[in-house]
Amino acid sequence: MSRPNFDDIFMELAVNLAKRSHCIKKHVGAVLTKETRIISIGYNGPPAGTHNCDEEFPEHGCARDSKGSCTLALHAEQNAILYAVKNNTSVEGSTLYVTLAPCLACARIIFSMGIKKVVFMYSYAAYKGLPHDEGLEFLKKFGVAVVQYSKEIVYEDPLI
């Protein structure tokens, strides 16, 4: 029997966490790790205690901002980082596994929090129809290791 490596374990968990999302636009999951330990998890959606978009606004989701993004949603990586910090867990030197590459705003947070590596599955730019992944470029420019996960995981996002 072969033992799965930690990259596979953590990315598979991120894929499964994405299935917890109540967003009607996109499901994204994130796992924050240090060495071989999970320090936090997250998925995209409105802050806890507000509402679930797919239940309260099933046809259109929550209101959109001028760029077409959800006005209340936190991104999966934001949720993972915020939960860790809220519970007094240092994220400095950690690795973030995320099903969708970070947007530029999340990349700024990732860098500022001292996260050393990001492993992502899919391109944010391709999802948004942008010419390039600004978030990944930002991270690379400032010394954060960026790796695209290369193995195939069945990721059935009902919104794709």
TrEMBL record:
<keyword id="KW-0378">Hydrolase</keyword>
<dbReference type="InterPro" id="IPR035105">
    <property type="entry name" value="Deoxycytidylate_deaminase_dom"/>
</dbReference>
<dbReference type="GO" id="GO:0005737">
    <property type="term" value="C:cytoplasm"/>
</dbReference>
<keyword id="KW-0862">Zinc</keyword>
<dbReference type="GO" id="GO:0004132">
    <property type="term" value="F:dCMP deaminase activity"/>
</dbReference>
<feature type="domain" description="CMP/dCMP-type deaminase">
    <location>
        <begin position="5"/>
        <end position="137"/>
    </location>
</feature>
<comment type="similarity">
    <text>Belongs to the cytidine and deoxycytidylate deaminase family.</text>
</comment>
<dbReference type="GO" id="GO:0008270">
    <property type="term" value="F:zinc ion binding"/>
</dbReference>
<feature type="active site" description="Proton donor">
    <location>
        <position position="77"/>
    </location>
</feature>
<dbReference type="InterPro" id="IPR015517">
    <property type="entry name" value="dCMP_deaminase-rel"/>
</dbReference>
<feature type="binding site">
    <location>
        <position position="75"/>
    </location>
    <ligand>
        <name>Zn(2+)</name>
    </ligand>
</feature>
<dbReference type="Pfam" id="PF00383">
    <property type="entry name" value="dCMP_cyt_deam_1"/>
</dbReference>
<dbReference type="InterPro" id="IPR016193">
    <property type="entry name" value="Cytidine_deaminase-like"/>
</dbReference>
<dbReference type="InterPro" id="IPR016192">
    <property type="entry name" value="APOBEC/CMP_deaminase_Zn-bd"/>
</dbReference>
<feature type="binding site">
    <location>
        <position position="103"/>
    </location>
    <ligand>
        <name>Zn(2+)</name>
    </ligand>
</feature>
<dbReference type="GO" id="GO:0006220">
    <property type="term" value="P:pyrimidine nucleotide metabolic process"/>
</dbReference>
<dbReference type="InterPro" id="IPR016473">
    <property type="entry name" value="dCMP_deaminase"/>
</dbReference>
<protein>
    <submittedName>
        <fullName>dCMP deaminase, putative</fullName>
    </submittedName>
</protein>
<feature type="binding site">
    <location>
        <position position="106"/>
    </location>
    <ligand>
        <name>Zn(2+)</name>
    </ligand>
</feature>
<keyword id="KW-0479">Metal-binding</keyword>
<dbReference type="InterPro" id="IPR002125">
    <property type="entry name" value="CMP_dCMP_dom"/>
</dbReference>
